[in-house]
Design brief:
Blueprint lengths: L14 H7 L2 H4 L3 H17 L5 H19 L12 H13 L12 H37 L4 E6 L2 E7 H26 L1 E2 L15 H7 L4 E2 L3 H6 L2 H27 L7 E2 L18 H24 L13 H24 L2 E2 L1 H10 L4 H10 L4 H18 L8 H7 L7 H4 L2 H6 L9 H17 L2 H5 L1
Parallel strand pairs: 3-4
Antiparallel strand pairs: 1-2, 5-6
Helix pairs in contact: 3-4, 3-6, 3-8, 4-5, 6-7, 6-12, 6-19, 7-10, 10-11, 10-12, 11-12, 14-15
This protein binds arginine.
């Protein structure tokens, strides 16, 4: 058991206590961030005349070597250390001797861990954003190829009005685009550096916090040292954004599972993204979509867990906050793998355009348009609604669609119907006439697609950091 403290203790920590208290088993993930933060800290200590140039050089060299050795596996992160901060400091002292003991001057593990976690979350925001962008590129490709692929649009899971596949995918494009903008907001809000806040009350050393903040790519230093060491809002905000991403993915998965079912057959999942049954030879299951839908729960769980952990904590740092890591890491890993697999699944999926179109034809999705046909010829809407309702009942009885009726049959229900009705309530007309911004009509849809293209081309990582 190797600890950074011990001077005031007369007894060894009980083994179980050490095991319960340790965080190395999970915070070793912050290894690179810990070294990056320490280098910035000692460079600043030297600039401020708190340590000598030689000491700084020796510390930076030692830290760099530790990083290399861990990365090429000549140095193992073994479990005798309490946390990653202890591991790095102890190994530095082993390597360079007394100069290593000065690294922690003017710093506490409280501001150190706050910094490490911020650096890590900040980087993960960019990674998740990249994955969202890859998904949007696939969605846009499907949209471009399907501005004329008709399908039924649903409300209450009942066929409602005809739309296109491009329109349906466009709805998800909007959702994931909002997710990206949420990430940008969080990045901007969190991008202030806690380093130099000390244990809670700053330090008496003349630290240049503006300088370390700029070395580490932050907007500036945080302005209240007590808040700095006990703020985990950015974890909660990120978990919230991740939860919303999962909610979007889960809804999409649910639809894909339905579309892939034997009853719908709107899509066919690629064999490489499907799984079989151990007993039923005919089965090809959408396990990936089901798992993404299922994993949504554990990401929501992480958000609830963090909110609950934080709710009773008095200022400033308390050990409860160590609980931020496992749930946040797990949620990040989960969302990243879900986004990656979901994107591949959609990219390889086949769309059964014929079946979608047939389904749109059969569900009276043009009933509103048939009512509008009468309205345009002078029938009040409420009467038109009743007339078409009766017409639908008649069709259900005969098991045909509205446009399969003869003009005589139509006229019997309303003399206002003329031969041009067939053209006016065709699937093509129903979709093409929906020309308002945001509607499935191909003219407007193509403009929206063009806008999305420019959005994807113009955006890059730099925008996020600005
Ligand atoms: N392992 C701790 C955490 O994750 C690091 C900070 C410890 N600070 C302390 N005063 N014990 O929160």
């Amino acid at each position: 058991m190797a600890q950074l403290w011990g001077g005031r203790f007369t007894k060894e920590t009980v083994k179980d206590v050490f095991a319960f208290n340790e965080s190395l088993s999970f915070d070793k993930r912050l290894f690179v961030q810990d070294i990056e933060g320490s280098i910035a800290h000692v460079v600043m200590l030297q600039k401020q005349g708190i340590i000598t140039e030689e000491e700084k050089n020796s510390i930076v060299k030692g830290l760099t070597q530790i990083q290399e050795e861990v990365e090429n596996k000549t140095l193992q992160i073994t479990d005798e250390y309490e946390d990653i901060h202890s591991f790095v400091e102890a190994n530095l002292i082993k390597k360079i001797g007394d100069a290593g003991k000065k690294m922690h001057t003017g710093r506490s593990r409280n501001d150190q861990v706050a910094l490490d976690m911020k650096l890590y979350v900040r980087e993960q925001i960019l990674n998740v954003d990249d994955l969202l962008k890859e998904l949007l590129q696939v969605l846009l490709r499907v949209m471009e190829e399907n501005t004329n692929t008709y399908m039924p649009g649903f409300t209450h899971m009942q066929k409602a009005q005809p739309i296109t596949l491009a329109h349906h995918f466009g709805a998800y494009f909007e959702m994931f685009k909002r997710d990206r903008s949420r990430l940008t907001d969080i990045y901007k809000r969190m991008n202030y550096c806690p380093l130099g806040s000390g244990a809670l009350a700053g330090t008496t050393y003349n630290l240049d916090r503006e300088y370390t903040a700029s070395l580490l790519g932050f907007e500036g230093p945080t302005l209240n040292s007590m808040d700095s060491v006990s703020d985990r809002d950015y974890c909660i905000e990120f978990l919230n954004a991740l939860s919303i991403i999962m909610m979007h993915l889960s809804r999409f998965c649910e639809e894909i599972i339905i579309w892939n079912s034997n009853e719908y057959r709107f899509v066919e999942m690629d064999d490489s993204y499907s799984t079989g049954s151990s007993i039923m030879p005919q089965k090809k299951n959408p396990d990936i979509a089901e798992l993404v839908r299922g994993k949504t729960g554990r990401v929501y769980g992480a958000l609830m867990s963090m909110l609950t952990t934080m709710k009773g904590i008095p200022l400033a740092y308390n050990k409860d906050m160590q609980e931020d890591k496992e749930v946040t890491f797990d949620a990040i890993d989960t969302v990243k793998s879900c986004l990656h697999l979901f994107t591949g699944m959609v990219d390889t999926m086949k769309f059964r355009k014929d079946i979608m179109e047939q389904s749109a034809k059969m569900g009276f999705t043009n009933a509103t348009d048939a009512a509008d046909y009468l309205v345009k010829r002078g029938v009040p809407f409420r009467d038109a609604h009743t007339i078409i309702g009766k017409l639908v009942l008649y069709c259900i009885d005969k098991n045909v669609s509205i446009d399969e009726l003869t003009i005589e049959e139509l006229k019997e229900i309303s003399p206002v119907f003329e031969a041009d009705v067939y053209e006016e309530i065709s699937l093509k007309t129903c979709v093409e006439k929906r020309l308002t911004t945001g509607a499935p009509g191909p003219d407007k849809m193509c403009k929206v697609i063009q806008f999305y293209k420019e959005y994807l081309e113009s955006e890059n990582e730099e925008d996020m950091k600005k």
